[in-house]
Specification:
The chain is mostly helical and 376 residues long. It has a two-stranded antiparallel sheet with strand order 1-2. It is globular. It is built from 14 helices and two strands; from the N terminus they run βαααααααααααβααα. It has helices at residues 6-30, 48-72, 78-110, 115-118, 130-133, 136-143, 161-181, 185-201, 206-228, 240-258, 261-281, 297-323, 327-351, 356-375, and strands spanning 2-4, 287-289. The chain has one domain (2-375).
Amino acid sequence: MSSRDAVLDRLRMLLAILVVVCHIHYFEEIFEVESPPNNWKHLPLLLGHQSVIIFFVLSGYFVGGQAFLRYSNRTFLFFQFLVERLTRLWIVLVPALLLTFFSNQVTCLSNQNSMYCTERIEEGALSLSVNEVSNLKVFLGNVIFLQGIKAPVYGSNLPLWSIAYEFWYYMSIPFFIFFWKLRFRILKAGVLALAFSLIFFVGILFNLFVWYLCWFVGALAFYVRKRFGTLRVKLSNRFFIPGAVLIMLVSRFLSGPLDEFSISVASDLCLAVIFSVILWLRSDHNSTYRFRLLEFSFSIYAFHFPLSILLYFAFWEKFSSKYGYFSVYRELFPYIAFILIITGCWALYFLTERHYLTLRRRIFDFFSFLKKSKWR
């Protein structure tokens, strides 16, 4: 058994499912299986972007906030922090890249005429053909978290861009610690000037900076909550998830119809700030449970896209080209695909993500052994 915040686990699971549903909808549009949503009842299909923003806030809340709290308590160790983050990410990211390679090979071998393998798709779920982004250089660039920054996402597994962003958000924490330790204001001003010059003049993506602000307000929410407490009036956990979904819907409504970059940025930042305030005000809820169904949201996020590629490009496209689009299959296949994708991600979770604490402990034991051997 493990002591976890079940409410936040449920929210993360819901966010991961919304991302999966959103991407399934993109594949449905590509194959014209279902007409695009055009009213409010279909709006949950389009909450993928807002789900990623909430993921960033939660990442800042759990990782950034705890790191800042450790530093204030003088228990922050950079090596320990680095090992914790790399083990948490690599144990899922590397298998996800390998699964992407496998899905690419199976898709192109089973159907060499698939548009996934031959055509360049500029809009929708895919932005590059598999042949353009499936080489060793891109693979290694993704391993060291450069996808979406200085390298394309490997094999068109598009959700992996946010994992790279998260890693570099983690690496900003030592920068803030170094900045905080500087005693002279002129040095602090120089460091800030250097940071902003890197952002705007060296080519670091503007979105990377904007969504970093979303991540950072989540970290602040955790630090303020643990360091200074919260208000006497707290938000009941019964309303926490419905409240989060409500502000996501409002954010989607404000950013979608206007379709302007400045409005979209403002909407993302407002969503992050409001959700961080909700995190700060919510009641504590730690529970112990045996079932691990709520713990594999990261696996869903990393593995669902190559599994979707296998289902839609290796099976559905080949099946439809041979037997035609039957209405019964057209209606049922998205639901069947969703069940298969979630089940596959759950199975992969037991092979990968579930063991990250064991891997982390063995790495610490190994370095502890080397340290002891050095002094003998």
